């Protein structure tokens, strides 16, 4: 472990971790599904709700102006966190799923033609599959899938072979939510850009675990969620290049996205408001900004190193248990380990682990096509965050051994 990384001090910042589950200390290892919130985020949201709450962009009274200032300060905070060029490129949405749907419905339906192609990878979450299927069904475009190798890494040569004259978009995950594979996003994007192809990255599993610089990656769109970044639920971000967002039609209508409305026609607001119909999740944005402050104060490189050490410990210890098979062994992985135990359904395994105070995810992880490719109905998944400890990895391993004794 990094000797300067004080995980016990960090844990003290998270009230929810200071409890027991089924009489045992809580080992929360389901961060890939949703992270917990530090006190700084809870305080920021509470302060907004108790001192600033009002609707934004509409009122001349003091509270509305203060709420607007806080909301737009949060947008600027997001811009800095991912190094976007302008706040015009930061669109607040409900989550990664809505961000991808926005691009699929706005850019996709207005751009794609019959025979055009969208390329995804075999690692994708449903949120980066289904919106493109819907766009293809509406436009006559085709969805193509870049395969993975046995270790869970993208087969880059076969990816390149899929890029053709009708390829209009490459939409891929930055980090796999099942296998933890970190995709070579800069190379993926560079290959697409050389061919005039746009790119979208699903960053839901990346932004809380490593520095993300959208200008260095050079992608056209980047989507992520607040609740996987130690912030509130119900909020996400779509980054899009300003020129692309400017050319795209609105997806939803009403509220803040309009400039003028008559019974005959309407005109649209400037960016990013053109894509923010209705009252936004104001307190969520405030909380996300506080979460970004918190993470950057810890140091994202230090967080990444800490989680890598936990992953290495968990991988080695679980591999020593008879009957365990770990899914995914790519050279570059995030803090996610998916595994199966012979003779035990992952749901049963998750239930036993919960009795031991260990919270993991068990299921298909919203990646049913990948599960079909692996020939599995589900896996158990432990995913690590900034506050997890080596002792919690030991608790996980003991609980898996206990489950093996119960079922095998």
Structure characterization notes:
- The chain is an alpha/beta fold and 408 residues long.
- The chain has two domains: 7-30 and 299-407, Aspartate Aminotransferase, domain 1; 42-296, 3-Layer(aba) Sandwich (Aspartate Aminotransferase, domain 2).
- 40% of the residues lie in helices and 17% in strands.
- The protein contains 14 helices and 17 strands.
- The protein has helices spanning 7-11, 39-52, 62-82, 96-111, 130-139, 156-162, 185-194, 214-217, 242-247, 282-298, 300-319, 346-355, 368-374, 390-407; strands at residues 20-21, 24-25, 27-28, 90-93, 117-121, 142-146, 167-173, 198-202, 221-225, 236-240, 258-261, 266-268, 324-327, 336-341, 358-359, 361-363, 379-383.
- A seven-stranded mixed beta sheet has the order 4-10-9-8-7-5-6, sandwiched between helices. Strands 13-14-17-16 form a four-stranded antiparallel beta sheet, with helices on one face.
- Helix 4 (96-111) runs parallel beside helix 5 and helix 11 runs parallel beside helix 14.
- The longest helix is centred in the N-terminal third of the chain and has 21 residues, at 62-82.
- The radius of gyration is 22 Å and the shape is globular.
- The chain starts with 6 loop residues before the first helix and ends with a helix.
**What share of residues are in beta strands?**
15-25%
Number of strands: 17
Under CATH at level 1, the class of the largest domain stands as Alpha Beta
Number of helices: 14
**Low-confidence residue ranges:** none
> How many structural domains are formed by the residues?
2
Overall pLDDT confidence: 97
Share of helical residues: 40-55%
Kindly report the name of the CATH homologous superfamily of the largest domain: Type I PLP-dependent aspartate aminotransferase-like (Major domain)
Q: What name does the CATH topology of the largest domain carry?
A: Aspartate Aminotransferase, domain 2
Task: Categorize the overall geometry.
Answer: globular
* Estimated structural class: alpha/beta
Q: Give Rg in angstroms.
A: 22 Å
């Amino acid at each position: 472990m990094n000797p300067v990384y004080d995980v016990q001090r960090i844990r003290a910042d998270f009230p929810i971790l200071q409890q027991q589950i089924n009489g045992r200390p809580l080992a929360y290892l389901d961060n890939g599904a949703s992270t917990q919130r530090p006190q700084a985020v809870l305080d920021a949201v509470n302060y907004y709700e108790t001192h600033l709450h009002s609707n934004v962009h509409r009122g001349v009274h003091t509270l509305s102006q203060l709420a607007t200032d806080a909301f737009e300060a949060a947008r600027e905070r997001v811009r800095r966190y991912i190094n976007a060029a302008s706040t015009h490129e930061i669109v607040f949405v409900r989550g990664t799923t809505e961000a991808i749907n926005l691009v699929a419905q706005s850019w996709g339906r207005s751009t794609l033609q019959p025979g055009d192609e969208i390329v995804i990878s075999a690692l994708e979450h449903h949120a980066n599959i289904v919106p493109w299927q819907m766009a293809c069904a509406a436009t006559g475009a085709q969805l193509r899938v870049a395969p993975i190798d046995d270790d869970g890494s993208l087969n880059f040569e076969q990816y390149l072979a899929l890029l053709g004259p009708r390829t209009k978009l490459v939409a891929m995950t930055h980090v796999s939510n099942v296998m933890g594979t970190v995709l070579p996003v800069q190379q993926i994007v560079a290959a697409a850009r050389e061919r005039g192809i746009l790119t979208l990255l699903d960053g839901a599993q990346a932004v809380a675990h490593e520095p993300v610089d959208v200008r260095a990656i050079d992608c056209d769109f980047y989507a992520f969620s607040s609740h996987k970044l130690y912030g509130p639920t119900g909020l996400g971000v779509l980054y899009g290049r300003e020129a692309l967002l400017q050319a795209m039609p609105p997806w939803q209508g009403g509220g803040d996205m309009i400039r003028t409305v008559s019974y005959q026609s309407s005109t649209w607001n400037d960016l990013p408001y053109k894509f923010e119909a209705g009252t936004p999740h104001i307190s969520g944005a405030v909380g996300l900004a506080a979460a970004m402050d918190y993470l950057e104060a810890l140091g994202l490189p230090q967080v990444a190193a800490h989680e890598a050490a936990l992953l290495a410990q968990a991988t080695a210890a679980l591999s020593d248990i008879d009957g365990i098979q770990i899914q995914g062994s790519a050279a570059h992985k995030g803090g996610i380990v998916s595994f199966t135990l012979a003779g035990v359904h992952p749901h049963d395994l998750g239930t036993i682990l919960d009795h031991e105070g260990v919270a993991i995810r068990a299921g298909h992880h919203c990646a049913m096509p990948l599960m079909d490719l692996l020939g599995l109905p589900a896996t158990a998944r432990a995913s690590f965050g900034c506050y997890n400890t080596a002792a919690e990895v030991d608790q996980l391993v003991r609980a898996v051994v206990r489950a093996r004794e119960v079922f095998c």
